[in-house]
Structures are given as structure tokens and as C-alpha cells.
Amino acid sequence: MRGRFITLEGGEGAGKTTQAKVLAERLRRKGINVLLTREPGGTPRAEAIREVLLSGKAKRFGALGEAVLFYAARESHLELCIRPALERGTWVICDRFSDSTRAYQGAAGGLPLSVIETIDKAVVGDTRPDLTLIFDLPPELGLKRAAERLREGVAPAAVADERAERPASAEGFRGAATGSDVIALAPSIDAPAPDRFETMNLAFHRSLRAEFLAIAKAEPERCALVDASDTPTRVEDRVWSIVRDRFQL
Ligand SMILES: Nc1ncnc2c1ncn2[C@@H]1O[C@H](COP(=O)(O)OP(=O)(O)OP(=O)(O)O)[C@@H](O)[C@H]1O
Ligand SMILES: Cc1cn([C@H]2C[C@H](O)[C@@H](COP(=O)(O)O)O2)c(=O)[nH]c1=O
Q: Where along this sequence does the record place binding of ATP (predicted)?
């Protein structure tokens, strides 16, 4: 049976990475094979693109240029990592996916939705998430958390983690060759400094929030809203109750 595809979406510092790890552990405790991954990233090629995008080096290409790069990374990720895992029956938990492009490069970045939808159709096809958890909180709070994370010297976690899973191709996870469980990614991009999008102004982050809320409202069969301003334990419980109900676990 095909695995389930779960994505986590939302603004900066919303707690997606924190909760993705907890969810993966909870599912594993139920005996489910889980691939925990992130976007942009998940394969060496996509991680290299991540470095370019988050450093701000691609900013001068505008929202269209950045969107094309996000989709180049997504194509590699889907082809070498996500689709093979789903076909093996592994559940995939992905920290950000297409809704982020729609919010960041679309609503907040000014790229028309029709352009994103065209590229999305070509790259993602029918590999759509079965469930998208949308983490909602005021951007001021999310940015404060992200700033505290930086002050504590904690880089946004590299979540590519395949445990028992192994990619079929040489372009798969870097850690596969060494057999490591959690993939250690190149430090340069995850060094503690605000990334390209964290440095945008509050108006940008407000439009992100509005777009994520609009997506959740427009697609209630796929999306579930999570109040990310709550305590970590409460958020964890809410996530688990959504996942349990959705997949009848
Ligand atoms: N519910 C919560 N309450 C308070 N702090 C939290 C909560 N969840 C996560 N945090 C903390 O906030 C910071 C950001 O969390 P995390 O990295 O999980 O967010 P994120 O949504 O993945 O962020 P980004 O998209 O910016 O990478 C971390 O330092 C984390 O420990
Ligand atoms: C997938 C995707 C991501 N982004 C932005 C959103 C964040 O600012 C970074 C990713 O960093 P994180 O710490 O892993 O959250 O990239 C984007 O603008 N468009 C996208 O499609």
C-alpha cells in the first residue's frame, strides 16, 4: 500500500520542524516506516539549491527566478526521495512543500498564482499531500521565536532522516552512503544567521499568514489548521489528534 504524504506549512518560527520530529517518532512507535524530510532540500542537489536560495544570492532573479529554483529542488526531491518512499509504503513527513511557494513567492512575493500552478502541475503532478498541517501564529511571535533560536545558536534543524529507509539512487541523501540515521548537512547554510526570508518586513510575513489561512480555508479536505501559538505539548497533542483521525490510527 502506498505510504501517506504529510506536509507541514506556515510562517517562520511556527514550530514545524519541532513538530515534524515529534510526529515522526509517534508514527514510528506505531510501527510505521517514516521518512522525515524538508524543502527546499532532501537530496544533495536540492540542498545545494537551498544554500543558494537561503543565502539570498538568488534574490536578484526575482520571485519567478526563485520559484523556478524552488521547483528545481522539488523535482529532485520528488523523483529521488518522496515518490520512491511512498511507493515502498513509507510515510513521508515533509517540512514545507508547494504551499510555501504559493505563499512566499506568490502571495507575498507577487508572482501570479497561475504561473505557480502551471509549474506545480508539471513538477508535482499528482503527488499531492494527503494531509497538510498549517501552523498558524502571529508573525511577530514566529519571528521572535526564530530570533531566539538564532540567539541560542541553534540553526534551523536539518531534518532529512531516513532511519531504515535508503534512497535507490546515488543522488539520494548524503548520509545514505555512510549509513547514518540523521543526515548532517553542510554547515554553511544552517549557520546561525537569519535567512533571506526571515529578514523580510512584517508586511511580507503578514501576507504569508493570510495566504496560509486562505489555503486552509479553500482546501479543508487536505488542510488542517493548528494553533501554533500554544505550548509545544498542546500543539503536539493537536497534531496527533488530527493525524490519528485523518488516517484512522
Ligand atoms: N509551541 C512552541 N512554543 C514556544 N516555542 C516553540 C514552540 N515550538 C517551537 N518553539 C521554538 O521556536 C523556535 C522555532 O521552532 P521551529 O524551528 O520548530 O520552527 P519552524 O516553523 O520550523 O521555523 P522556520 O520555518 O523558521 O525554520 C525553536 O527554537 C523552537 O524550539
Ligand atoms: C519550500 C519553500 C520555502 N521557502 C522559504 C521559507 C523559509 O524562509 C525558507 C526555508 O527555511 P526553513 O527554515 O526550512 O523553513 O525558504 C520559500 O520561500 N518557498 C518555498 O517553496
A: 10-17
Fold annotation for 5-247: Rossmann fold (3.40.50)
47, 86, 96: which is closest to 165 by C-alpha? 86
Residues with CB under 6 A from ligand 2: 12, 38-40, 54, 70, 96, 100-101, 104-105, 156, 195, 197
Separation CA 170–CA 76 (nearest Å): 12
- C-alpha cell recorded at residue 225: 489548521
Nearest residue to 121 via CA among 74, 87, 62: 74
Looking at this protein, which amino acid is placed at residue 142?
A: G
User: Taking the model in full, what pTM does it have?
Assistant: 0.91
Measured by CA distance, the residue closest to atom 13 of ligand 2 is 156
Q: How far is CA 234 from CA 152, 207, 230, 238, 241, in A?
A: 23, 26, 6, 6, 11
ipTM metric = 0.99
- Domain residue spans in the chain? 5-247
Looking at the CA of residue 98, tell me the nearest atom of ligand 2.
21
Distance 18 CA to ligand 2 centre (A): 15
Find the helix packing angle between 139-151 and 202-218, rounded to 10°: 120
Ligand number with the minimum distance to the CA of 14:
1
CA distance 42 to 49: 11
In tens, the pLDDT along 175-207 reads 332 222 223 333 344 547 899 999 999 999 999
The rounded distance, in Å, linking the Cα atoms of 158 and 8 is: 15
Helix and strand numbers (H, E) in the chain are 10, 5
The rounded Cα 219 to chain-centroid distance in angstroms is 18
Residue type, 229: S
